[in-house]
Each structure stands twice: as C-alpha cells, then as structure tokens.
Design goal:
single chain, mainly alpha, 0% strand
C-alpha cells in the first residue's frame, strides 16, 4: 500500500522535472512492474528487432564473418530459430554497438535476448531514480519504453548515459566520457556536444570527442567494420526515411518535397529549432536539446521518443505520448493492423515534441 501511495503522490507532481526533488524509490514500483510486463508480451510477436541484428553482427564478427555481412545470412548462421523477413540488409548501428553486444554472443540467442531486456530494464529503473522523475513522466512513457525493451534497442543505455551527464553536469570528466560513449553507440547524441561548446565547457567537449574516437578505435580493432558501416549509413537513411512509421519531421517534409535531401533537411531543421534556444544552451542545459535532436534526426523510431522523458512533460504532451505509445504497443502484439494508420499516429507524436520545444522557447521570451 505504501508503494501505491508513493506512486500517486508522485503522480500529482505531473511532469515537472526537478532533479533536486526527493522522490521515494517505491513510487517507481508500479511503473516499473507495468513496464516489465508490457515489454515481455510483444517479444514473441516481433520478427525483426534491433537486438537481433546486433546479435547477428556480433556473432558474425566473433566467428570470422564481416559484421557488415547481410543480416539474413548472419541470422541463418547463428540463430536458425529466428523467423526473419530479411527487411534489414545489414546492421545500421556503429561497430561500437556491435562491440557492446559481443560478450552476449557467448550465450544462446534465446538467453541473450532476455538478458539484454532485463539489463535494459534495470538501466531505465536506475535512470528514473537518479533523475527523480515524477511518476507521471514514467507512466506516460511506459508504452514507448516497453517497445524499446521488446525491440532490444540501445535507447535505454543512451538514456542512462544522458541521465549521468545531466546529474554530473558540473563534472567535465564524467559528463564528457558518458556523452562520448553515447555518441559512439548511436551517433545522434552528438547534438549534445553543441551545448558543451556554447556553454564554453571546452574540457568536457574535448573529453567527449576523445572518448568517442577511442571507443570507435577499440570497436574497429575488435569488429573491423567501420568503413563498411560508414558506406552504409547514407544508404540506410535513404532506405528508411520515407517509410510510414518513421516519425521524423524530415520524413514529413519529404512527403511535401519528395526530392529533398534528408541531410540538408536535417541541417535546416536543426538550425531553425536550435537558434531560439541558444541562451539556454549557453547555460549548459543538456535536456533542452532533446526535442531538437528528435525533430532534426532523419530517422526517428518509436524508441527514440523515450529520450524526451529527460524533459518536463505536461498533460497534453503526456496524453499524446501515452495514447500513441499504447496504440503502437497494441499493433506490436497483433491486436490491430497498422495498414494505413501511420498518418494518424505521426501527428500526435510530432505535435507534443513541437509543443515541448515551444514551451522552452516561450519560457526564454518571458522577462
């Protein structure tokens, strides 16, 4: 009963993020249990997952194949029990991500996927606690986090690294290292370095750059896949930028201007949405860039949206995230067919992201 009481007490705080607030750890029990249950249910319904391609690439690197080899070939070699529809030609994740997964390839596929899910769940739990997130924020992002766990994505790790960066904002060494690792794993957190530069935290920015380079060098030594991955990145972007369930503003713009370059669109969006935030960025506010990262990224999958929970989330944004996340979860477990419904989901996802950004800009304009 105490856990339930603490949960509803925290829920009343809504989405106002305050890292100095005291929140009982028991307030997270209900969201964490719900998250674990909702993560386990879709697993058997998902035929193509992030962890599958990472596991196959890592297994291939360990057994004399190229980590950039066709995913269907690697899957057939390592895990014949996987029902794979060969929609992913090769892993699009950096060799650093492959290196992280490498130890898990010593375990059978079915064991490794559950170990990865539980480890990711624990990272989310610890991150919620150290960020002292209100239960409201945790609850409305549970559907998206459950999809991230079921897919075996790297977003829980990125979230954990960014949580450390936020809590250790004044520690240039720690902040630089964790940001550098995040960049090496998924690249898009490189936007965070802009905050370090504008706030003249040169030491943290340099440490982040050095950490990224060192991590990627180790990955190249262990996996030997950097050149092939760099060649594939633009191909992967062009392959997926126009698919229905890419929730990016870049993809939306290309619906209007089909020939527009994803890279140019991303740079234009990043510039437009970053300029009004420069006063806050100069103060070293890392979280304020999260909406910009999502709006400017050419590829935005459902699991990326979880990173917005590092920002304050209001009632309208929270309702949109919970509703759309729940819908995507229902689709994932096969209750509803998604054909033709993507446009209905994209708008409620983009609108709260834009709303969070607008609130930040409006706050800056107030005396």
């Amino acid at each position: 009963m105490k856990a339930v009481s603490n949960f509803f007490t925290s829920l009343l705080n809504m989405g106002h993020l305050d890292t100095k607030r005291t929140v009982s750890s028991s307030a997270y029990i209900i969201p964490l249990v719900l998250l674990l249950v909702m993560s386990i249910i879709p697993v058997r319904h998902l035929t193509v997952t992030d962890f599958m391609q990472d596991y196959a690439a890592a297994w291939g690197a360990l057994h004399g194949y190229s980590a950039n080899a066709p995913t269907d070939m690697l899957v057939h070699a390592c895990c014949q029990t996987i029902q794979y529809d060969n929609s992913i030609t090769q892993t699009a994740h950096p060799p650093s991500a492959t290196l992280i997964v490498l130890p898990l390839t010593l375990l059978p596929w079915e064991v490794a996927r559950w170990v990865w899910l539980v480890l990711s769940w624990l990272i989310i739990a610890v991150s919620w606690i150290i960020l002292r997130l209100p239960s409201f924020v945790c609850l409305v992002t549970v559907p998206y986090w459950s999809m991230a766990l079921a897919m075996g994505t790297f977003e829980p790790i990125i979230f954990g690294l960014l949580a450390i960066a936020v809590m250790q904002a004044e520690n240039n060494l720690v902040a630089g290292i964790v940001i550098g690792i995040a960049i090496a794993l998924k690249i898009y957190p490189i936007f965070v370095v802009l905050t370090l530069v504008l706030s003249q935290r040169w030491r943290a920015a340099i440490i982040a750059g050095i950490t990224t380079v060192i991590f990627m060098l180790f990955a190249e030594i262990g996996v030997h896949a950097t050149y092939g991955w760099l060649q594939y990145v633009p191909k992967n972007t062009n392959l997926w930028v126009d698919v229905a369930f890419n929730y990016s503003l870049v993809g939306t713009i290309r619906n209007v201007l089909p020939g527009a370059s994803p890279f140019i669109c991303a740079m234009f969006i990043a510039l437009i949405f970053t300029l009004p935030l420069i006063p806050r960025l100069k103060k070293g506010d890392i979280q304020i860039l999260m909406p910009v990262i999502l709006l400017a990224n050419p590829l935005v999958w459902a699991n990326y949206l979880c990173l917005l929970s590092t920002r304050p989330i209001g009632r309208i944004e929270g309702a949109c995230f919970f509703a759309t996340g729940t819908f995507l979860w229902v689709v994932a477990v096969g209750v509803v067919q998604s054909d033709g419904l993507a446009p209905i989901v994209v708008a409620p996802i983009l609108i709260p992201t834009l709303l969070i950004w607008y609130k930040d800009v409006k706050e800056l304009s107030q005396p």
